[in-house]
Amino acid sequence: MSHRRILFCAGTGCISSGALKTRDALVSELEKRGIRDQYEVVLSGCHGFCEQGPLLIVHPEDTFYCGVQPEDMAELIDEYLLNGRVVERLLYKDPVTGERTSDHMKIGFYAKQKRLVLHNCGVIDPENINEYIGTKGYEALKAALKMERTAIIDEVKRSGLRGRGGAGFPTGMKWEFTFKTPGDKKYIVCNADEGDPGAFMDRSVLEGDPHAVLEGMIIAGYAIGADEGYVYVRAEYPLAVKRLRIAITQAEEFGFLGSNIMGTGFNFKINIKEGAGAFVCGEETALLASIEGERGMPRPRPPFPAISGLWGKPTCLNNVETFANIPLIIREGADSFASVGTERSKGTKIFALTGKINNTGLAEVPMGMTMREIIFDIGGGIRDGKQFKAVQIGGPSGGCLPAELLDLPIDYDSLTQAGAMMGSGGLVVMDENTCMVDLARYFLTFTQNESCGKCTPCREGTKRMLEALERITEGKGESGDIPMLEELANSIKDSSLCGLGQTAPNPILSTLRYFRHEYEEHILEGKCSAGVCRNLVTYHIDAEKCTGCRACTRVCPVEAITGDKKQPHEINIQVCIKCGACMEKCKFDAVILK
Amino acid sequence: MSQVNLTINGIPVQAKAGMTILEAAKTVGIDIPTFCHDPELAKVGACRICVVEVAGARNLPAACTVPVAEGMVIQTETERVRAARKTILNLIWANHPQDCLVCEKTGSCKLQDYSYRYGVSGSIYKGQKKEIPFDDTNPFFFRDLNKCILCGKCVRKCHDINGVGAVDFMWRGFKTMVTTPFDVPIEESSCVFCGMCVDVCPVGALTPKQGLGQGRSFEVDKVFTTCPYCGCGCTLYLNVKNDKIVGVTPNFEGPINGHLCVKGRFGWDFVDSPDRLKTPLIKKGGQFVEAGWDEALDLVAEKFKEVRAQYGADALGGFSSARCTNEDNYLFQKLLRVLGTNNVDHCARL
Amino acid sequence: MASLATAFGSGAMTNTIGEIEEADTIFVMGSNTTENHPVIGYRIKRAVRKGAKLIVADPRAIELCEYADVFLQLRPGTNEALLNGLAHVVIRDGLTDEEFIKERTEGYEELKAALEKYTPEYVSEITGVPAADIEKAAHLYAKAKAASFLYTMGVTQHTSGTNNVFTIANLAMLTGNLGKRGAGVNPLRGQNNVQGACDMGALPVVFTGYQPVTNDEARAKFEKAWGVPLSGKPGLTATEMVNAAGKKQLRALYIMGENPMVSDADINHAFHCLDSLDFLVVQDIFMTETAKIADVVLPAVTFAEKEGTFVNTERRVQKVNQAVKPRGQARADWEIIRDIANRLGFDWKYKKAEDVFNEIRQLTPSYAGITYGRLGVTGVHWPCPTEDHPGTPILHVGKFSRGLGKFTPIEYTPPAEEPDEEYPFTLTTGRILYHYHTGTMTRRSKGLGEIHKEEYMEINPADAEALGVAECDMVKVTSRRGEVKTKVKITDRVPKGVVFMTFHFSETAVNLLTNTACCPTAKIPELKVCTVRLEKA
Description:
The complex is a heterotrimer. By secondary structure, chain A is of the alpha/beta class. Helix content of chain A is 38%, strand content 15%. In chain A, the strands form six sheets. A five-stranded mixed beta sheet of chain A has the order 12-11-15-13-14. In chain A, strands 2-1-3-4 form a four-stranded mixed beta sheet, covered by helices on one side. In chain A, strand 17 and strand 18 (570-571) form a beta hairpin. The N and C termini of chain A lie far apart (63 Å). By secondary structure, chain B is α+β, with helices and mostly antiparallel strands. Chain B folds into four domains: 3-77, Ubiquitin-like (UB roll) (Roll); 117-209, Alpha-Beta Plaits (2-Layer Sandwich); 210-272, ADC-like domains (N-terminal domain of TfIIb); 312-350, no CATH class. Helix content of chain B is 24%, strand content 18%. In chain B, helix 2 (79-93) crosses helix 3 (110-118). The longest helix of chain B has 19 residues, at 293-311. The two termini of chain B are 49 Å apart. The longest helix of chain C is centred in the N-terminal third of the chain and has 14 residues, at 79-92. Chain C has a six-stranded mixed barrel. Helices cover 31% and strands 16% of the residues of chain C. Chain C is α/β, with parallel strands linked by helices. The relative contact order of chain C is 0.14. The two termini of chain C are 41 Å apart. In chain C, strand 10 (308-311) and strand 11 (316-320) form a beta hairpin. Chains in contact: A-B, B-C. The A-B interface holds A 278, 280, 295, 297, 299-300, 302, 448-457, 459-464, 467, 484, 487-488, 491, 493-497, 502 and B 43-49, 51, 59-60, 62, 65-67, 80, 83-84, 87-88, 91-92, 94-95, 124-128, 149-150, 152, 168-169, 171-176.
């Protein structure tokens, strides 16, 4: 076979699981064989299937290998590249059926996705603008520059695109407000301060298809009359920053950015501002404060940024994924875009699947898909065959939804109604071994630590809620704690300054709504059914299962286990420190939690 | 500027467009509590004690930041509003020392005032409290950050009104505190001790060292006067109790200042310096000897007469003072001139 | 003062402090505003934050430089050259306000001719300021809708002090920056009532309200009011009185609330002179260095123990009220003066400060409309001729007090002393934030005394290194007149070759060093420039 293209996924996930070393190994093996020039080895953006990384795809036939390590490369060359024999052991193996496949579109994870925003991710080299242009890149910009500004805004409005950063505000309306606000200077700001634990879709888009974001921003700038833009991106995303910088430079070289863009007289420049990693800086007004060099703390709205934003100028602020949708809308048309999705939520949404799920990674799906499809068809179901218990949607500000709602079609409104929110699209899946009170405690720890400290309800209130949850999970809960939590949570929701404060109680409110019995069980019965809250569980040995092998006594660090050889043992719960070592060691599942 | 019509607590109100709910309410005598609001400062809506109910709004917006709009229907003291305010007071109290009996701020403390107004005593919440060491290192004021309710007025005054920006928020969440960059002692920061922070602190977190324990705000007489230092002419109130100055309050309505500088704010205690001259002194044999007024003034008059008689009026001269009042200066030059000389000047040139 | 009176007909701040925030450009020269007029400093910084442009001209890199668009770090004593340079650029680049010049001024052509040679390049040679910065500053000042010029002693305490002020007046008139909001020529007065003392005629040539003693009509009015014949011969200035005392021409001196033994230039000389007096009476609140050499010391009260009025730097007459009883046997200054007068055979019947003020009103047209009752908590700006007149915050609106504004061509003259081999450093003096004047009050305030206890002479790091001195080391500073020892503070605030000291500390009295050379018109000694030699002590 002659000239072929080998794509390595070089998203942050695959790089950390060794993609670059594997690529180096491949290159050096090719060189050894003197056939380096017959192969184009390309680093692409993220494929989304991080669970299986490092990933490798061979074009033109599209053979999909996963978990590829440097030591596999010699075999891959000799068997597959040179002799066409697929290396079976490196193919994806379905966790349920055990079948292997070389066609990634047959993998459940990919089959149900609709990769519109991610269409370039994992396909092109993000550091090469020509590859972007090769997939219709910057065509939307060319088209837009020939349109009336209001026509662009109308197109975006008609598409029904809503902000992908959280609250789902209609993007076209935001643009229109900013357009209509008089001002000699306006700004476009791209929010790439992805702060939700477990969310990484913005990072992947920036790493995999940075030009799409730039193109969206430039179109927005032209439409609203801005000549300058900022990308506010976390400093913890060095690869995204690097690729953005490369993309900006290349776009400038190609005349898509800078002065007199494509000869139209339109000027637009884009700056990168690296954020220092405060969760609150994802909140738009705090983000603007941070760009201005102030401490990242939210400002009251109104005035909204569209009226008075960056340095007091009208500012249009959208999230990465929102901007990445723009070229698509302009290129393919609002109608085409709006044909996907639900009545009030159009297009696709990228979700980050994490937690106790088989296929962790990024999945782009049409709005309106049910949670069940996402978790079980795309996500491959729950790990280790355990039971699904709940899913936390929308990060720390979102809510926890139970199994009963698995068939809920996901869009902005259905989620809000159910007590969660779209947020940035993080999906953390919990199995039967998750304690929902402990989970709420976890999220409250996060929101309390990340509360900017400005407004009283959020700063002080989340602390008191957190303390109550800590008490409950430590078995010191009191009967008044649940009503106190509910009252305080509602008060914080009612009176906090910014969106983060107003949504900070969501994990508590949603777990109280769907899993109230777990709170009651902790407080009234001193029990944690999931066996998570250490103060509420005791370790016991099932005399019937114990063989008296003594394995547990050897690992117990405090000599809490006694018993004669070959006789059932016992744990002295007064001495036991609940480290769980015995349970892990026991081959007969004789150590149990009560 | 255009007018908008709205109702507050059922009262029809006409307000200027752009006014906040708080400002509009004030025009009809409705008081909404505030901690973080200051008319001179940017509106931040941080403390949330001013939340009100606006018909149609999902949440309770802060009256200090939300502008009035045509047809707005506002309620400032509903159960829901009062409950939210009580929650906020409870949250503040849960993290605030309860030492009002000895707190210097008692009587002029907003936390006390609003606790009284909403019947909140102590907190229904229990848990951790801040434990920040008491700071008395600088010569002018105490910083008890455990009493700080983080309204941020000191930060905004320091940045926006003074311009030195010596303090700002540090840390996040429950650990949030107002302090200097890297928490260095305040006297090592860019602080110029103008005392604006002390004057706007709504609670007892910042209190002047002078006058400590010498008089509650309601016990002192406030005497309006003009600062004796530079030519800015800031006006201020001397706080007096039992014929003793115990403090200074700026004239917030003053056209020049509103605030003072370190000298005007903290530099008044020379008045009761033990070095003050208390009696006339006459030098006898190279030593000063205490004298009565009559003796001293007779001597002065006699000497002036003598010199004038012997050497003429122009052998007399006087330095008047740029630190004395107009009345003092007027009589001083009049005295020299009626004695027959124009030899009168003062240190305008220094 | 003298120059403003010549140029505009009135020598006071033309606009108000509040208006500073309305200026588009603020030009601060020879004023360390944030330390010496802190609340005006707040305003300047606030104005800059709101978008105003700031030009700072000072030999030292003062705090305001951090906010400045242009910082003109001129050599001490070269103010008039710098301002001539700016005026040159304004004319050269056609930035003049032609209508203002035509309608409201005279002497433009003479000025224009005189400014010909002050090209940015020439001025740069004199001042050490880059030519480009001179041009930038001129444009920022001239193109502003309203530009406010603020200055203090850094402009006036020079042998060329009066001329410096003329050059400011010239620049302001060229650009039409007078008689409108946010603009003006604004000398910031250094002391609480220096404006009032001048208004009250505590000057050798004028009665109250600047009515000249040489004017027969004015004298007749005062003779009538006071019931005695008055001298029409101009009196001596303070500096001249000190010298006259040394020559035994002046025999008895009455000093009220001043401390020339610390504040005057060349203290050794001052001591010698004052010591020659037959009789010295000092009236003060503390035993000052000057009181120590007096024959009689009279205890006066502080501001807190008396009633009266002060006039601030923007001509606002404000009330001083008694808050506490006089300490010990101390008495109000005006009471003491009254009692002396009565012992000298006059019959002064003033019972309260207001009686005095009412007499002032009757004799002073610009104060005629001001009453104690009107002052309230905001005061009234003079001129205020009648009781229904609102006062005059802005002077020279539509018309100068003297009619037409007068341009005065000024040539650069170097300071009286310039560095040489023997005295290679230029010493400039001033105040710091925490202390006031000779420190009699501030050093007796616990907090102020504690936070800044002693003198630290500012010296550039390069000079410090050359001298081999480290932070807080002692140096001996010697001028042609005397020497002092002081600790040093090594800082970039001063340029190479320039050192800075305050006059707050009598134990390191900088005025042992300073030069009595005076501005010939205003008789202000050149406290801002003298040359010294430094040695490690």
